[in-house]
Amino acid sequence: MTAPLSSPQTVRRSRLGYRMNLVGVISFLVILAWALVAIFAPLLAPHPVGEIVDFDYFGPVSSQFPLGTDYLGRDVLSRIIFGARYTVGISLAAVFIACFCGITLGMTAAVIGGFFDSALSRLLDALTSIPSKILALVLVAAVGSSIPILILTLAFIYIPGCYRFARALAVNVNAMDYVVVARARGERLGYLIRAEILPGIIGPVLADFGLRFVFIVLLLSSLSFLGLGVQPPDADWGALVKENIGGLSFAAPAVLFPSIAIASLTISVNLLIDNLPQKIRDRSEQA
């Protein structure tokens, strides 16, 4: 005889279905750790970020310098800790701006439709056709590489992608009966977007948010590696790899550990979003 739907076994199984697996939990902890490092960098760094603390350039790992020293004899651990502020901070700011603008425009175009939808889609499709790295190089080289410019440039590059993704989802939700009823009773555009469209696409949008964050981290690191990102004496993780590239022939840890930092953050975000969207969709369907 089968157990009733309200049995403890069924409830236990349903609750477990909403939990992230071990990989998701570990990924979340890694992301949280880097976020805390970025916030509390001045308290965690053992040395001032620009201070030359060792006369042995490209020094090895030691008890005094856990991650070695760079090409000028500066502590690599301190520079990675401070670099987290730029890598995480700039990328988060850029992805928030890109997703907010792109998702808002995408939902608006799906609800309004007509000429507005067609014109906006063609314009942003034209921007999408330009390779992201080339567009970033042109914009940063033309305007400058200050932190506000970097944030706006990265956000501008990824707005079209956010728009296309959000519009594709919003068009499907816009055809649902409950949205048609809300429109028939005279609800305004803002209400339709906020209360009817957005709740129906929030799961995939959060997944896309994580992917865009990874793309922006990698693009920012690429710009810094080419010398157009965060400028000295400050440095993000991409700049740390670039400035210590000469240590490859010495097997210097100053090249290895910034690369590991970039990989740990981007891989953790990817692994986390593999668990998050299904969890949110399941709860939305239950509601």
Provide an overview of this structure:
Helix content is 72%, strand content 0%. With 287 residues, it is an all-alpha fold. It has a single domain (19-286), classed as MetI-like (MetI-like fold, Orthogonal Bundle). It is elongated, with a radius of gyration of 23 Å. The model is unreliable at 1-17 and 279-287 (pLDDT under 50).
Quick summary:
The chain is mainly alpha-helical. The chain has helices spanning 8-16, 22-39, 41-44, 76-112, 114-128, 132-143, 147-174, 177-184, 189-225, 237-243, 253-273, 276-286.
Any chance you could write out the topology, listing elements then pairs?
Elements: H1 8-16, H2 22-39, H3 41-44, H4 76-112, H5 114-128, H6 132-143, H7 147-174, H8 177-184, H9 189-225, H10 237-243, H11 253-273, H12 276-286
Helix pairs in contact: 2-4, 2-11, 4-5, 4-7, 4-9, 5-7, 6-7, 7-9, 9-10, 9-11, 9-12, 10-11
